[in-house]
Amino acid sequence: MSNGTSNNGTSKMEMRVTVSGEGDIVAARQAARQMAIALGFGSVDQSRIATAVSELVRNVVRYANGGRGEVLLHELPSTPRGVGIELVVADDGPGIADLDLALHPGYTTGPGLGMGLPGTRRLMDETTIDSSHGRGTTVTIRKWHR
Amino acid sequence: MVHVPIIRVADTLIATVQDELLDSDMLALQEDLAATLERSGVGGVLIDLSAAATVDSFLGRLLSDIATGARLMGANTVVVGIQPAVAISLVELGLDLKGVHTALNPERGLAWLLKMNDNRSGSNGRGQH
Ligand SMILES: Nc1ncnc2c1ncn2[C@@H]1O[C@H](COP(=O)(O)OP(=O)(O)OP(=O)(O)O)[C@@H](O)[C@H]1O
Ligand SMILES: [Mg+2]
């Protein structure tokens, strides 16, 4: 695991968590909660964001090559929707062959309940999944508050 | 690894879950609880989640598994102290912790266990608190 916090030129908050094992599930959700608190998200949103990150990073640990990947956490530029947080969870594992199926509640190829991806979509305001067979998986999630 | 202590109070085993726990810590707790149930023969398990800021699908499923396993060993399980924000997230995630009895706090959880054990043993001397 390695964590980094930095400010880019526009002084937006940014963090990174390298994923290499189950301990990084905890590290990533703690980083997400920390940034959500710093950006003024309330306790329910903090919990939603931490839960979604926990699901996505567990998927990396479970399904990606060697359980390796990366989480990038950014503050988004302010918009009329208010303050936003974006989390990008990426791996270069086997990818997801059928995204529609993977987003179907109850669909799993592992030991889980098949709730992670559909649940993440309900917990967050925006969820984008970029994946195809053999090309890795990148899930981008966003949440806003006024 | 974080070892979750199991405390025995009268006829109940009590375990407190913290937020920083790894999946493997929780699996270890599941095994510890089963072994302690077998050794002690108590009738109740109380799991306190009031310190858990995040409950995801893994932990949710594990709680159901713990309750089912305990029931097969003749013990009732109650999960107490789920934070309001956690409850909302669990619903949105799509987990309803089916088959897991829940209570607002440890006092109510213990009262429920006591009532269940009274029913089980057919005595009615202690009643509800
Ligand atoms: N990063 C990933 N790389 C490859 N496949 C993935 C990845 N994430 C998800 N998948 C696939 O999508 C399926 C659905 O994922 P989802 O998180 O919804 O459920 P699950 O992980 O199987 O169970 P749960 O999350 O409830 O424990 C997985 O079973 C797996 O086949
Ligand atoms: Mg999953």
Describe this protein's structure.
The complex is a heterodimer of chains A (146) and B (129). Chain A has four helices and six strands. Chain A is an alpha+beta fold and 146 residues long. Chain A has a six-stranded antiparallel β-sheet, with helices on one face. In chain A, a hairpin with a 2-residue loop joins strand 3 and strand 4 (82-91). Chain B is an alpha/beta fold and 129 residues long. Chain B is built from four helices and five strands; from the N terminus they run E-E-H-E-H-E-H-E-H. Chain A binds chain B through residues 22-23, 25-26, 29-30, 33, 43-44, 46-48, 50-51, 54-55, 58, 105, 112-113, 115-116, 118-119, 122-123, and chain B through 19-24, 53-58, 60-61, 83-86, 88-90, 92-95.
Give the tags.
heterodimer; A: 146 residues; alpha+beta; 6-stranded antiparallel β-sheet; 4 helices; 33% strand; B: 129 residues; alpha/beta; Transcription Regulator spoIIAA; 5-stranded mixed β-sheet; 5 strands; globular; binds adenosine-5'-triphosphate; binds magnesium ion
Furnish the topology, listing elements before pairings.
The complex is a heterodimer of chains A (146) and B (129).
Chain A: E1 3-7, E2 13-19, H1 23-38, H2 43-63, E3 69-79, E4 82-91, H3 99-102, H4 116-123, E5 126-131, E6 137-145
Chain B: E1 6-9, E2 12-16, H1 23-40, E3 44-48, H2 57-72, E4 76-80, H3 84-93, E5 101-103, H4 106-121
Parallel strand pairs in B: 2-3, 3-4, 4-5
Antiparallel strand pairs in B: 1-2
Helix pairs in contact in B: 1-2
Magnesium ion (MG) is lined by residues 55, 58-59, 112, 116 of chain A.
